[in-house]
Amino acid sequence: MVFIKTLVEEKYVVAALIDTTSRFSTISKELFDKLRTDHGIGRVTKIIKRYNKDAVGEINCLDIQVLCKEKYRKLNFTEAIDFIIVKSPKYPLVLGQSWLSVHDVNIDLHQYEISLYGMHIPFLDEEEYFDDDLYYEFRKPGRSLPKSTPYEKEYESSSDSSLHEQNSGLCPRSESSEDEFPDTVIPKKNIRIMTP
User: Fold this and answer.
1) Of the candidates 171, 148, 144, which has an alpha carbon nearest to the alpha carbon of residue 13?
2) How far apart (Å, rounded) are the C-alpha atoms in residues 76 and 65?
3) What's the chain's Rg over C-alpha atoms?
4) Whether this model's pTM surpasses 0.85
5) Where exactly are the structural domains of the chain?
6) Which end of the chain is more exposed for a tag (fewer CB within 10 A), N or C?
7) Where do Low complexity bias regions lie (predicted)?
């Protein structure tokens, strides 16, 4: 299993499961209730009920930021991704095929990272945390998920929601000039998984 560190609605830091086999992206009802957002909850369709009998609602526009270069970076197209609210899932946040394809995510098992929009997001080490430590309140003292890089400090949330305005702060694996990043949003493509 592959996990990355995310910030949900600028309130909770969550170890999100990257699941290429899941058709839908899901959020636990417990985590959704703790967010206390004003998302309108849609009805669950029959197709979704067949997929997951514990589904209790559907939302979109869920703000999920990814950790890159010690800062959380906002992503575009949140309105294009539906999240299923699930009563009792094993993981609080699952980023399935819907999320992966909208953000054109590449999974590199050799480098232990995913890449999207020119950012390289390292995997979390699954053995360093337990199921009850999969999420915690943002900036709550004394709590942290395992470090995905050895030099992480206190993280900040990116205040600008437009990705193309943040391109100068993206996380290339190697040092490169700012001119290498395009000013346009990358279109949707298929998910690619690289293996060693």
Assistant:
1) 144
2) 10
3) 16
4) no
5) 2-194
6) C
7) 158-168
pLDDT tens, per residue, the chain with 196 residues:
889 999 999 999 999 999 999 999 999 999 999 998 888 899 999 989 998 899 999 998 999 999 988 899 999 888 888 999 999 899 999 999 999 999 999 999 999 999 999 999 999 876 655 555 666 766 655 555 545 443 343 344 444 444 434 433 444 443 433 333 334 344 444 555 666 5
- Going by CATH, does the domain composed of 2-194 fall within 3.40.50.11690? no
Distances (CA, A) of 2 to 46, 113, 159, 174: 29, 9, 27, 23
* Partners of residue 82 on adjacent β-strands: 60
Residues 112/44, Cβ–Cβ less than 8 Å: no
Hunting for tokens 């369709």 — which residue is that? 45
